[in-house]
Amino acid sequence: MAVVDVVAQHGWGFGAWCWDRWRDVLPSNFALHCPDRGYFGPAVAVAARPRIVLAHSLGLHLLSPQLCAAELVVVISGFRSFHSACARQARRSRRTVEQMLARLEREPAALLTDFYARCGAPSDNCWSGTIDADGLHRDLQLLQESVLELSAIPAAAQVLILHGSRDRVVPVERAEELRALLPNSALAIVAEAGHALPLTHVRACWEQVERAWRGMHSV
Fold first, then answer.
1. Residues whose CB is less than 8 angstroms from the CB of residue 128 and which lie 6 or more positions away in sequence, other chains included
2. Total-model pTM
3. What span, in angstroms and rounded, lies between the C-alpha atoms of 60 and 54?
């Protein structure tokens, strides 16, 4: 059976470890490759040209080279822009990011602890190693300004958007906006889930991914 390469990119504040439990649910012919931004240790790049891409939150904005060969792009708790088109809401979210940037300089560990709680991440979720505050600052600034180029997603690729109904970091509206902008996309809302879907709803997410993949390759 042919191997299906899968690249899984974590979002801001997390690491490649957020995909660890996915190895327990992926079938044996799916090879999981997890780049790491290096927030808590050495950065890890992945050269694979995957057929499936999993991107959590800001991770979608970090994967342009890998997206070019993807047949299925799975956007988990993601967005085209972190900020709303509504000026009032955008001012509020921009101010939140500015406050996070300022706090990151003073107390990065406390900021991450509070961020994980807001994400709904498991209480035993933690990092190991030294915190790279500069790297976190760089990518938090990217989150503040980045607007995804839709052309980065191959026109022939299918897009599956997974979003928690109780996401307190990225509102469901950002997922709905992506769905409206991408013609080959489908949106699935995960009930009672927050922002940390790769950690909290592994099996539910993979079932959606596998269903989409099998549907694309049905005999």
1. 40, 41
2. 0.96
3. 8
Backbone conformation region of residue 77, classed left if phi is above 0, alpha if psi is from -120 to 50, else beta: left
Summarize the confidence of residues 1-20 as an average pLDDT. Answer: 94
Place of tokens 């509020």: 92
Beta strands 52-56 and 72-76, pairing class: parallel
CATH of the domain at 58: 3.40.50.1820
The C-alpha angle with vertex 218 and arms to 216 and 219, in degrees rounded to 5, equals 140
Number of domains in the chain: 1
**Domain assignment of residue 141, yes or no:** yes
| Positive or negative torsion for Cα 75, 80, 84, 90 | positive
Q: Check whether 219 has a pLDDT greater than 60.
A: no
Across the chain, mean pLDDT equals 94
